[in-house]
Amino acid sequence: MNRDLLTRLATAAIAATAAVIQAACGGGGDMDGTTEAASRIVPPLIADDGSPMPSDPQASPADAAAWTVAGLYASAEQVEMLGVARADLLHVEVGCCGIEAADLAVWTAYGLRAAYDLPTNAPILVSGRDLRLAASVVDRLGEGGMTRVWLVTTLR
């Protein structure tokens, strides 16, 4: 046999094997997307050396006005995973409405950090209904020297 024919046969055999394995492992997903959601790999927020990992692109807000300077975004799954692994995690909820709610969230973060005697690199998760307002809190905390502050979003 010539080399091209062997290459094509090997490629076909690999493709057929991959198709059988995919079918045996549940196929490519259900029409409603439940298999895809269940098998999604959740990337960590913090690397082993303590530095922030690059954010999942699907976690960045669809509204560009809600983007943060640092570009750190966390999904609910990442928040849950980090909450189990970290005792020094702070979660700040930005209530409704306006600058007063943002001020309260910023001072709450500073107060909690001081009360627990945490360093400026303690992880802080900021969430709220108004992502633009919550993003402003993230940016203000970053300007204040806090280095690991994520905006909690929903996946797109």
Attribute tags:
5 helices, 156 residues, four-stranded parallel β-sheet, globular, alpha/beta
How would you describe this structure to a colleague?
The chain is an alpha/beta fold. The protein has helices at 3-24, 34-38, 76-85, 99-115, 131-143, and strands spanning 73-74, 90-94, 124-128, 149-152. Strands 1-4-3-2 form a four-stranded parallel beta sheet. Helix 4 links the parallel strand 2 (90-94) and strand 3. Helix 4 (99-115) crosses helix 5. It starts with a helix and ends with a strand. The model has no long low-confidence stretch (mean pLDDT 80).
Secondary structure elements and their pairing?
Elements: H1 3-24, H2 34-38, E1 73-74, H3 76-85, E2 90-94, H4 99-115, E3 124-128, H5 131-143, E4 149-152
Parallel strand pairs: 1-4, 2-3, 3-4
What is the mean pLDDT?
A: 80
* Largest sheet strand order: 1-4-3-2
Into which percent range does the helicity of residues fall? 40-55%
Shape: globular
How far apart lie the N and C ends? 51 Å
Structural class: alpha/beta
Count of strand segments: 4
SSE order, one letter for each helix or strand: HHEHEHEHE
